[in-house]
Amino acid sequence: MKLWVLRHGEAEPYGTRPDSERELTDHGRKEVLSSAARLMGQPLTAIYASPYLRAQQTAQLVREALGFEPEIRTVDWLTPETDPDKVAEQLVSVSNVLLVSHNPLVGHLLSYLQHGAGHPPEKVSTAGLAELKGDELLVGSMKLDSIKHP
Question: Would the keyword Hydrolase be found if you checked this record's keyword annotation (predicted)?
Fold first, then answer.
């Protein structure tokens, strides 16, 4: 099984809008397209995204770049402050999916899936794309294959 985790692209600064309504910048869109290119030819079965605008825009750019037919699955368990354990519970019966989310969740989730609880988060820049592999999704047993930054 593979799992890809993509942090949204660069967004407008804090304070210009509520956090959930911050949009991608032009630079952020370019970052996302660079990361999307790394997903070409991968066996994606679904794209799950946070409801926050910048994550939705990121997921849509990826979907269009890949020509991915299924709709984006918007889920509230990919917002920035969600506990990684809650995310892992949602992923028990899926494989080969892309998660589009935010820090601090992205860094904590990557660490949690590799090592379990209590380890420092992985560092992931905007539009950073991580690929995890494993026989099945078991907390602490996934292998981080790569983190690519645009």
Answer: yes
